[in-house]
Design brief:
A hairpin with a 2-residue loop joins strand 1 and strand 2. A two-stranded antiparallel sheet has the order 1-2. By secondary structure, it is mostly helical. Helix content is about 80%, strand content about 0%. The structure holds phenylalanine.
């Protein structure tokens, strides 16, 4: 289950957002700030969700309800489930793109000059049918895993997918770092430049760490409800944080040396993964096209695995909720979630179409989902969770979970309480205001 939770954390955010942010915001200096955010804020928030989830031993909404004692705090849990659900469809669209790129690498469609590759992406993502087909395909895979249950589906899939992802990552990092001129990429990523660190960078690091650790989406809480009574929650959170940071840094070591070796400046977001990188691979391995072919294929397989384990965790949030709250069998609940999330995904995907008919206040539906879930609901749920656990839930309940009913020493318990009572809520409040443009 801990590996599955790490799978939830390791996702597209590690590959497309982290390396770029690190490179652009002071390299190793940013990485240090980021590690500080994970350690002092991300991990305590993660432990808090674990506490609520394992105490509730049920879906996120009910877990909050059990602790809320009839007060409106229970709605925070419902909001967590809603956030998880809303992000599922949109995350699946991008995961579907990864599948299309596995296919494209396999049949050799990603060969051509940079203009061709960028046109290839815009033609594909804006075409009405193909992205939806791939979204459906990734949902089908997710559905099969979820339907098989927690132990046989989620746990088994994680045991297979996570090590594979790690091996692929190491292979590509080694090859990428060996490219001529690759050292420039390594120093871009790892050279500390403290002059770039300002409050904006600090807040972005904070936001990124929360997104990357899957905080406030119901995932951690839901997965924690399957943890055993013997799991040391703090240690589990620390391990997951470590794996997540490691994958993010390795992703940087995979991307930058290859990009610098051919003189392409790395970009962020979808264009990095789907335009810049295929281009980089094609150029970097122009002398040995077979290697370019293999690397491109491995890279998109890796990306799909990372996305898939996150998508599974998102799906599970709603499946557990519907299964328990609407008293439906798990299989029926999974079908309902798949269908509903696929409908959202379809509209998100269509909103990117050339016609641009599905826009609201100048943003596509796709961007709206990204904005509402990542920048509004995530901080709100995170903030309220800290306040709830720090100020409202009896400390005995928190301590029992933290120390496994007294069987662990519970080192740092008071420090943890201090963080979630004061430091985390304030930090989240700052990110929120920063993201809404009210603080720079
Ligand atoms: N943590 C995932 C990533 O890094 C994103 C995610 C957020 C997944 C919330 C599940 C839930 O991409």
């Amino acid at each position: 289950m801990i590996l599955a939770t790490a799978g939830s954390a390791v996702g597209l955010g590690n590959v497309w957002r982290f390396p770029y942010m690190a490179g652009d915001n002071g390299g190793a200096a940013f990485i240090l700030v980021y590690l500080g955010c994970v350690l002092l804020l991300g991990i305590p928030c993660m432990v808090s969700e674990f506490i609520i989830g394992r105490h509730g031993a049920s879906n996120t909404a009910r877990a909050y309800t059990k602790l809320a004692n009839g007060t409106p705090w229970k709605y925070v849990g419902f909001l967590g489930v809603l956030t998880g659900f809303l992000i599922t469809g949109y995350y699946a669209v991008v995961s579907g793109w990864c599948l299309q790129y596995i296919y494209a690498s396999l049949v050799g469609e990603l060969q051509g000059d940079s203009e061709y590759i960028s046109r290839y992406f815009s033609d594909f993502s804006q075409s009405p049918l193909r992205p939806i087909m791939w979204t459906a395909a990734i949902f089908l895979i997710t559905h099969i895993v979820i339907k098989r249950g927690v132990q046989h589906g989620i746990e088994r899939a994680s045991k297979l997918l996570m090590p594979t992802l790690f091996i692929l990552l190491i292979i590509i990092v080694v090859i990428s770092c060996m490219l001529p001129g690759g050292e420039k990429g390594i120093s871009f990523l790892l050279k500390p430049d403290f002059s770039k660190i300002d409050s904006g960078v600090f807040l972005s690091a904070l936001g990124q760490s929360f997104y990357s650790l899957s905080i406030a989406m119901g995932c951690l809480c839901t997965y924690a409800s399957y943890f055993s009574r013997h799991t040391d929650l703090t240690r589990a959170a620390a391990q997951i944080g470590l794996i997540d940071c490691l994958v993010a840094i390795l992703a940087g070591l995979m991307i930058f040396p290859a990009a610098f070796s051919v003189g392409v400046s790395p970009d962020s977001g979808p264009s990095l993964i789907f335009i810049t990188l295929p281009n980089v691979f094609a150029q970097a391995f122009a002398q040995v096209p077979v290697l370019g072919y293999v690397i491109s294929l491995l890279f998109f397989v890796l990306l799909t695995l990372a996305a898939l384990t996150s998508l599974i965790s998102l799906h599970e949030v709603s499946t557990a909720f519907i299964h328990e709250e609407l008293v439906m069998t798990r299989k029926k609940a999974a079908v309902l979630v798949t269908v509903l999330a696929a409908i959202i995904g379809t509209f998100c995907s269509l909103s990117l179409g050339g016609t641009g008919s599905l826009t609201l206040f100048g943003k596509t539906l796709f961007d709206w989902f990204d904005f509402i879930t990542g920048q509004v609901f995530l901080p709100v749920v995170g903030f309220l969770t800290c306040i709830f656990l720090g100020w409202f839930v009896p400390h005995k309940v928190v301590r029992d979970q933290y120390t496994n009913w007294g069987s662990l020493r519970g080192r740092y318990f008071h420090f943890y309480l201090f963080l979630i009572k004061f430091v985390c809520p304030l930090a989240i409040l700052f990110i929120f205001l920063h993201q809404l443009g009210m603080l720079s």
